[in-house]
Inverse folding.
């Protein structure tokens, strides 16, 4: 029975407990609870931790640090105190978070490479631009500097609202009075929930001038203010490239700017030089930057640097790169800026709390919010001073009444039994208030002297004038604005300095790949099976006529080199296919290979779909309207089109000429519209006619007849005639000759032509025709990949109807497939292509 009773009692207790728990449970949809809880957390982070207030530019932790230091009397002219003591004060009274968060924030306010104008003076190791951490808080000391004091001045005059601290045992300011437009001057960065802010620092002088401009003209436009506030001014200096991003950020609150390191060059003996970086972009770790550059040099992404060292000291920053002799300084700098953090992008987001709500603001809105804050501070300060002045004047008025009736008042006081009865007697007999009566009772006898009486009366007059002035300020908004202007001018005089970050108006911030490539002459070869490569021209040695030549390309047995030309790495390359299409490439985009290498399949570089092989390539430095492309086909059709019609490349190429079904494009040349054109055929014929005979037509067109072909003949080459040069013709059996251009008299377009060279069994068919002069070099190539390079002057000038001389010895199975001229480029009187 006892056991059953106990079980019953226990069951009743459990039921009662369950009932109580059930009463405390609130049924709620989990989606609603998650949404509300997340929003509460988000707003807590946004308002309480991550975002600055638009008025004083501070986050709560920074504001609490400065307020605590102000309470501790840690002014710029007082002794330093241990950082640990400051952190403890902030943690215990105002900021119930981790001590490291408080100390890290305090350290940042003392770093002259983090803040444009520091707010704290640190003593000890407060970190470095190399990323070194500050010493532990027990080792370092700190105090406020004068600028921070300007942010706290008048805080005791009821200028800002105070709110309870975390345990409601103390009061802390919701914002600082801040004479300093700190949000613009020092900037701020922070990541909240779903939003982030990134406000760059600015120059004090410029910001003060900009705010004064808006005070003088509240309707001022962004462009007007930008005449004063040029742009961000980072503590680490550097160079801002272009103002478009700055203007966008100031107008919309968002923008991007490119920040580059500043450098100088120092000449060294033996044609060497140093590039010395003296300033780096904001928030870039110098030590990591140097490691990054070292990796780039090791990985051959930056060429021409033989030594890298850090010579920075207390005098300034010096990151030294020693260049090799003859290294191209511009290319190296472009490579460094592209691949390292010597060039960074700073994304500006002007996001701050306005009335505890996050808002993205433009520059004018930021300034207006600061002015509004200072108007409120000045108004509240003036009202506070007025109240104090009126209270003191009221007391002085009572004292003056007492002094005027001193004998009677002394007698009244002596005759009173208690202080209270004396006070009532003063109030009743002299019309005084209790406050005035109490002041009379507390007045010291020394104030009865005539000198003290005069002081009291003079002080009262001064207070009356002060009260009138304070009332006039409160009654006139323009006087409040004048006070704000005066304070800003004082700030500017006391704390203003020169700009550290240079701003370049040059908007060409996007470098092309060509900016990272050194200008150099290249030999480009294309094989019959579609292999392409480029090789530095300097690797080919010039030889005498009749030599055996050197290997220029290794090919398969069934392949042979079909085209060869000379171009600069920065030139555009137009690739014309036999089906009449054209593709674009820069020379430096072509694969670089040795003389013996076969190259890379051209299909890997160009999107050639059923276009046949590439039949003609020409280098173009720039697409000009006054130049023409003249195209010739195998069937003798010729077409002239303005060069600028080919200036818009497409990924898959564009149509260069419309061809008949059985025709192919064989050659393309660049002209100025006033030349004579010579078409040469495989059977040794040639026709010369004036370019004017071909009117310019559109890119997508067929062309007109250039030569009348017979006996299954076909056009081999097209030459632009120059009377100062001769016509070089090379045949497949290694013979060739030069003929004076004047021997090819101009005739009408579409004729049969005249004999150019005798194509008998010894010579074979014509493979190449070029216009050359005595200074040119000639490079001939066979299908087995053998080349020979000879001066053009070694080939005799003879008549048209002749056989020519041997220019290249060939094996029985070999044939010449092409020949090209090497055009000398004059540099300081020296010919780059010289005999070695």
């Amino acid at each position: 029975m006892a056991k059953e009773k106990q079980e019953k009692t226990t069951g009743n207790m459990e039921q009662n407990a369950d009932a109580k728990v059930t009463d405390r449970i609130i049924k709620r949809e989990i989606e609603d609870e998650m949404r509300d809880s997340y929003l509460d957390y988000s707003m807590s982070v946004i308002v309480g931790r991550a975002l600055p207030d638009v008025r004083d530019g501070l986050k709560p932790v920074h504001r609490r640090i400065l307020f605590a230091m102000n309470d501790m009397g840690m002014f710029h002219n007082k002794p330093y105190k241990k950082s640990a003591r400051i952190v403890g004060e902030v943690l215990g009274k105002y900021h119930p978070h981790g001590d490291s968060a408080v100390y890290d924030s305090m350290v940042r306010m003392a770093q002259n490479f983090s803040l444009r104008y520091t707010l704290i003076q640190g003593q000890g190791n407060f970190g470095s631009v190399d990323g070194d951490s500050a010493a532990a808080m027990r080792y370092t000391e700190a105090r406020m500097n004068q600028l921070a004091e300007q942010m706290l001045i008048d805080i005791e005059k009821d200028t800002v609202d105070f709110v309870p601290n975390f345990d409601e045992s103390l009061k802390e300011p919701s914002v600082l009075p801040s004479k300093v437009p700190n949000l613009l001057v020092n900037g701020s960065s922070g990541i909240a929930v779903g939003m982030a802010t990134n406000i760059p620092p600015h120059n004090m002088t410029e910001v003060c001038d900009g705010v004064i401009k808006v005070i003088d003209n509240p309707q001022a436009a962004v462009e007007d203010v930008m005449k004063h506030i040029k742009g961000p001014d980072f503590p680490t200096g550097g160079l801002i490239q272009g103002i478009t991003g700055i203007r966008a950020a100031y107008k919309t609150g968002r923008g991007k700017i490119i920040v580059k390191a500043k450098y100088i060059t120092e000449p060294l003996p033996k044609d060497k030089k140093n590039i010395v970086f003296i300033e780096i972009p904001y928030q870039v770790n110098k030590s990591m930057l140097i490691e990054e550059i070292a990796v780039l040099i090791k990985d051959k992404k930056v060429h021409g640097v033989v030594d890298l060292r850090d010579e920075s000291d207390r005098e300034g920053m010096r990151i030294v790169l020693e260049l090799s002799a003859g290294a191209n300084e511009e290319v190296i700098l472009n490579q460094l800026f592209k691949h390292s953090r010597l060039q960074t992008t700073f994304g500006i987001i002007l996001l701050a709390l306005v009335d505890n709500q996050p808002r993205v603001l433009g520059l004018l809105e930021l300034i207006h919010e600061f002015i509004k804050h200072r108007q409120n501070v000045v108004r509240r300060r003036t009202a506070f001073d007025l109240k104090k002045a009126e209270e003191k004047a009221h007391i002085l008025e009572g004292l003056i009444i007492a002094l005027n009736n001193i004998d009677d008042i002394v007698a009244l006081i002596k005759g009173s039994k208690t202080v209270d009865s004396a006070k009532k007697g003063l109030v009743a007999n002299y019309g005084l208030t209790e406050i005035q009566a109490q002041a009379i009772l507390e007045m010291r006898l020394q104030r009865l002297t005539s000198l003290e009486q005069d002081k009291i009366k003079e002080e009262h007059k001064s207070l009356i004038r002060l009260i009138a002035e304070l009332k006039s300020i409160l009654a006139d908004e323009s006087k409040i604005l004048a006070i704000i202007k005066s304070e800003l001018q004082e700030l500017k005089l006391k704390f203003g300095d020169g700009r550290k970050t240079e701003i370049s108006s040059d908007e060409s911030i996007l470098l092309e790949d060509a900016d990272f490539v050194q200008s150099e002459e290249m030999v480009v070869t294309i094989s019959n099976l579609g292999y392409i490569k480029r090789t530095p021209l300097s690797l080919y040695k010039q030889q005498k006529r009749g030599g055996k030549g050197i290997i220029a390309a290794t090919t398969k047995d069934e392949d042979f080199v079909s085209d060869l030309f000379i171009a600069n790495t920065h030139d555009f390359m137009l690739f014309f296919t036999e089906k009449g299409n054209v593709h674009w490439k820069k020379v430096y985009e072509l694969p670089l290979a040795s003389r013996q290498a076969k190259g890379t399949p051209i299909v890997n570089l160009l999107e050639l779909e059923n276009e046949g092989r590439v039949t003609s390539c020409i280098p173009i430095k720039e697409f000009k309207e006054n130049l023409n492309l003249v195209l010739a086909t195998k069937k003798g059709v010729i077409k002239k089109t303005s060069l600028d019609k080919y200036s818009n490349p497409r990924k898959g190429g564009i149509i260069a000429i419309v061809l008949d079904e059985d025709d192919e494009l064989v050659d393309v040349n660049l002209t100025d519209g006033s030349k004579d054109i010579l078409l040469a055929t495989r059977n040794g014929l040639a026709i010369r006619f004036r370019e004017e005979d071909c009117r310019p037509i559109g890119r997508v067109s067929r062309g007109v007849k250039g030569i009348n072909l017979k006996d299954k003949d076909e056009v081999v080459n097209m030459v632009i005639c120059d009377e100062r040069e001769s016509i070089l013709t090379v045949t497949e059996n290694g013979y060739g000759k030069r003929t004076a251009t004047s021997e090819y008299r101009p005739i009408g377009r579409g004729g049969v032509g005249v004999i150019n060279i005798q194509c008998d069994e010894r010579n074979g068919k014509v493979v190449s025709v070029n216009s050359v002069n005595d200074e040119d070099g000639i490079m001939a190539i066979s299908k087995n990949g053998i080349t020979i390079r000879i001066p053009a002057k070694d080939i005799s000038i003879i008549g048209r109807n002749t056989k020519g001389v041997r220019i290249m010895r060939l094996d029985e199975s070999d044939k010449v497939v092409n020949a090209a001229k090497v055009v000398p480029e004059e540099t300081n009187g020296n010919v780059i292509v010289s005999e070695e």
Summary: Residues 363-404 form the longest helix (42 residues). The CA atoms of residues 237 and 283 lie 11 Å apart. Confidence is low (pLDDT under 50) at residues 824-836. The radius of gyration is 44 Å.
